[in-house]
Amino acid sequence: MKYISTRGGIEAVNFTQAVMMGLADDGGLLIPEQIPSVSEAELSSWRKLSYPQLAVEVMKPFIGSTIPESDFRDLVKRSYSTFDASEVIPVKQVGDIFISELFHGPTLAFKDVALQLLGNLFEYLLKRDGGKLNILGATSGDTGSAAIHGVRGKKGIDIFIMFPDGRVSPLQERQMTTVPDKNVHCIAVKGTFDDGQRVLKDVFNDLDFKRKYYLGAVNSVNWARVLAQIVYYFWSAFRVQEQTKAKRVQVSVPTGNFGDIFAGYVALRMGAPIQRLILATNENDILSRFFNTGVYSRGQVCPTLSPSMDIQVASNFERYLYYRVGKDSKKVRDLMAEFASTKSLSLSDSGDPTFAAGRGDTESTLATIRKYHREYGYILDPHTAVGVAVAEKFLCDIPTICLSTAHPAKFSAAITQALGADLAHHPTLDALVSLPTRRVTLDPKPEIIKEYMESIL
Fold first, then answer.
1. Is 111 a catalytic residue?
2. What is the pLDDT of residue 379?
3. CA dihedral defined by 309, 313, 315, 318, rounded to 10 degrees?
4. For residues 256 and 253, what is the distance between their CA atoms, to the nearest angstrom?
5. With left for phi above 0 and alpha for psi between -120 and 50, is residue 304 left, alpha or beta?
6. By CB atoms within 10 Å of each CB, which of 131, 267, 283, 314 scores lowest?
7. What integer pLDDT is reported at residue 258 of this predicted model?
C-alpha cells in the first residue's frame, strides 16, 4: 500500500514513511492510494476475533510489508493491554441507543485507542531505523493527554503539545501538565484550538525546520491515527449485530475535527455493515451546516460544555473533500485555497447520502444527560450527549450506535450543571488534583513556537 497527498504534490510513500511524515510535505493530508474491500467471508471470520486480533486484520492491508506481521501483532497487543476493560471497547444498550465506550484507556478518552498504538509504533520505528522524533501537536482537550501518555518517557522522542489556555476542562489540562517526564512540554496558547492547529500546520509547512528538527505529528493529520480508529467501527457494528441480528447499523459520531467520523467513512467504504453515519456537532457547527447545505463556512469559535468539539476548521475535512470531488487533487487545492482566502467554500453537487448531520446545543446536551441518568442510570459525558441528542433525531428501523468519546468524570462542571451534583468520578482523575503542574504560556505564532522548541532541543 502506498500513500499520496490530497493535494497531489508528493511522490507516493509507504506506510512507515507516512507515519513519520505526518502532514504531507505539500501541505495536504496523506491518504491510501486505494481503500481495500472486505469480503463477506472476511467479515464473517472477523466477527469472532478479540479486539486486538480484529485490529491486526483491519489494519494489515494498509501496512503491507513495512512491518513484519509478528512485530505488528506484538505492538497491537501491548497497546491495548493498557485498557481497563477486558474487551477493550464495551458496547452497551442504553434505551434505544447502543453506546460504544471508547474511553477505557489510560487517559479515559477515545484518543487512547489510536495514540497508545502510535506511541508504540513511533518507538518501534526509531529503534529499528534509528534517529529521533520531535512531536508537535495541538489539542482541543483529549488528544494532548492521550499523546503525552502514549510517548512519555520513550527514548528518542520529545513531545510539544499546544492547548488553548482556559478552553479545556481543568481535568483535561491537569492530565497534560502533571506529567513529570522530561520529554513532555505543554504549551498553553493564548487563543482557540483553531489558532493552535493553524500554527501547527504553519510549522510543518516550514520544510527546513521540519527536517532539521525531525518533526512528527500525533494529531489526526497523521494517517496512523485514522487507521487505528477504523477498527472500532467494525467492532461496534459486530457487537450490535450479535445482539439484534440486524444486517446493518447506523453510527452517530460527536465530532469537531472530522477525524473520528472520517475513520467511519473509510470503514463504510471498506465494507463494514454500516448504512449511515450521523455527524453530530455542538454550536460550532461548520460540519453539520456543510452536510445540510453544501457550504463549508468558518465562523467564530463558541465555547461550550463539550470543549473538545469547539472547532471551526476541521483538519480532516480535506481528506473527505478529496473523495467528494472525485479524487481530483487540483480541485482540492483550489477549494482549500478558496477557503483560506474567503473562509468559505461550497459544493454544488447533490450531497452525500452516507451522512446525516445535526447540531446538539447546550440546552439539548444538558437535557440529554438528565434524561439518560434519570431513565437508565447512565451518565453521558457532554460530547457523547451531543452525539446521542442528534442520534435521537435520526432513529429508524436499524440499530443506532453512538460513539462515547470520554469518561464523564473528565467534565465535572457539565455533569454538575446537568444533574445538580458532581456524580461522575474516576480514581485516576481524582489523584491529579494534588500534583504539581508544568506549562508555559505563549502567543499562537509560528515563530514563537519554533523559538521555544529550539530552546529545548
1. yes
2. 98
3. 130
4. 10
5. beta
6. 131
7. 96
Q: What are the pLDDT digits (tens) for 111-152?
A: 999 999 999 999 999 999 998 999 999 998 788 999 999 999
All cell numbers assigned to 453: 522548541
Which residues, at least 6 apart from 136, have a Cβ–Cβ distance to it below 8 Å?
160, 162, 200, 203, 204, 215, 216, 217, 449, 453
Q: Structural domain boundaries of the chain?
A: 91-108+224-428
Q: Which of 60, 77, 92, 111 is catalytic?
A: 111
Q: Which three cell numbers stand for residue 19?
A: 507515519
Average pLDDT over residues 179-205: 95
**Which amino acid is residue 146, in one-letter code?**
A
What predicted TM-score, i.e. pTM, was given to this entire model?
A: 0.94
Q: How far apart are CA 289 and CA 346, in angstroms?
A: 11
| pLDDT score for 141 | 78
What pLDDT band is residue 348 in, cutting at 50, 70 and 90?
A: confident
446/191 Cα distance (integer angstroms): 13
* CATH architecture of the domain with residue range 91-108+224-428: 3-Layer(aba) Sandwich (3.40)
